[in-house]
């Protein structure tokens, strides 16, 4: 082969190689471009910020419940005459301006005994402003010491101590009571559910203070004393009774008296009777004009029959001043006088 032919052949060979290279190059670029695009997409996906799922806000802690300090211990009866388990009581008083639900409140003495006030033990758990709330030992189980004294503690439902009252060795038949200036003293006037009464010479106050303040006992027994101590002419009558309360009959039964006159009446020596048991008001009990007084079963010992009974009110001379007769009692419904008629 001549030199010119060799050169021509070589040129065709290299030209062919160049064409192959040109044909192959676009494929490599396309593949590279595709791979690069995939890598970029992956990079973008990886680079996306991580967005957390929504978190529910934590609820705020409930505001703490506070209980009013307007409920105070106002009278304690550690050594009654007769059955102490039935006669002992602790009296509370609402000196505030709003009603207080006493459900869950607690009473205790110097021992480890704690009683929690419960709905099933009372006909009502509310102490309205100026009202008293009496808890008898037969309900609470809190036995008050006679010798050496004792103390009574009042707690809210949150176990915070709200009041505490200590007393010395008890005097038989007398209550440890708070007077109208906040001092405590013994008094022979036992007044569960009513304003405390003290012998006239024992108090410094004027006796006319608001509950649980004291009212002086003037010792009067004549009929000339605004209705008179043990008066015979007082216009006091039976007005209502609850023979079958919801819950305990022993602690929930009661008989209500009403002074429908306009003069004060002292019920000392008056009697309540159901034929099987007679209760005598041994101490002076002053009932103002158009005022009511509720005699609880633990005070009187009178057990009202659910199947029917008769209750009689007698004055100091034995004259009948009121009579109420009822048939089978309805649970939680009182037998009350409306005008001249009685009805459930």
Which keywords apply here?
5-stranded antiparallel sheet, globular, 344 residues, single chain, 24 strands
SSE blueprint:
Elements: H1 3-47, E1 71-77, H2 84-87, E2 89-94, E3 100-101, E4 106-108, E5 114-116, E6 126-127, E7 132-136, H3 137-140, E8 150-155, E9 161-167, E10 175-178, E11 184-187, E12 197-199, E13 215-217, E14 236-242, H4 249-252, E15 254-259, E16 265-266, E17 271-273, E18 278-280, E19 286-287, E20 292-296, H5 297-300, E21 309-314, E22 320-326, E23 335-338, E24 341-343
Parallel strand pairs: 12-13
Antiparallel strand pairs: 1-2, 1-10, 2-7, 3-6, 4-5, 4-8, 8-9, 10-11, 14-15, 14-23, 15-20, 16-19, 17-18, 17-21, 21-22, 23-24
Question: Count of DSSP helices?
Answer: 5
Main sheet characteristics: 5 strands, antiparallel
**Could you tell me how far the N terminus lies from the C terminus, measured between alpha carbons in angstroms?**
145 Å
Shape: globular
Strand fraction equals 25-35%
- Summing up helix and strand content along with how strands pair, one would put the structural category as alpha+beta
Approximately how much helix is present in the residues? 10-25%
Mean pLDDT: 78
């Amino acid at each position: 082969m001549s030199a010119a032919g060799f050169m021509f052949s070589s040129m065709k060979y290299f030209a062919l190689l160049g064409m192959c290279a040109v044909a192959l190059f676009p494929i490599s670029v396309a593949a590279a471009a595709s791979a690069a695009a995939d890598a970029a997409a992956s990079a973008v996906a990886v680079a996306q910020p991580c967005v957390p799922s929504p978190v529910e806000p934590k609820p705020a802690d409930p505001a703490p419940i506070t209980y009013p300090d307007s409920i105070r211990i106002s009278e304690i009866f550690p050594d009654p005459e007769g059955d102490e388990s039935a006669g002992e009581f602790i009296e509370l008083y609402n000196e505030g301006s709003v009603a207080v639900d006493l459900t869950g409140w607690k009473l205790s003495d110097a021992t480890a005994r704690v009683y929690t006030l419960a709905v099933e033990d009372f006909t009502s758990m509310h102490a309205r402003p100026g009202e008293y709330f009496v808890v008898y030992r037969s309900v609470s189980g809190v036995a008050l010491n006679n010798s050496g004294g004792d103390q009574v503690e009042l707690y809210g439902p949150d176990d915070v101590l709200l009041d505490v009252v200590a007393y010395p060795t008890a005097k038989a038949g007398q209550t440890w009571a708070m007077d109208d200036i906040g001092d405590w003293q013994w008094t022979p006037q036992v007044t569960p559910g009513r304003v405390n009464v003290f012998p006239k010479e024992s108090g410094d106050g004027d006796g006319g203070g608001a509950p649980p303040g004291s009212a002086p006992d003037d010792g009067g027994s004549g009929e000339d004393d605004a209705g008179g101590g043990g008066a015979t002419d007082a216009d006091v009558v039976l007005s209502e009774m609850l023979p079958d309360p919801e819950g305990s009959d022993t602690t929930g039964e009661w008989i209500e008296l009403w002074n429908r006159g306009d003069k004060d009446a002292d019920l000392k020596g008056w009697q309540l009777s159901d034929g099987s048991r007679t209760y005598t008001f041994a101490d002076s009990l002053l009932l103002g004009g158009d005022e009511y007084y509720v005699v609880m079963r633990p005070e009187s010992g009178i057990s009202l029959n659910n199947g029917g009974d008769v209750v009689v009110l007698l004055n100091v001379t034995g004259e009948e001043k009121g009579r109420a007769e009822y048939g089978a009692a309805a649970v939680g419904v009182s037998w009350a006088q409306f005008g001249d008629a009685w009805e459930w």
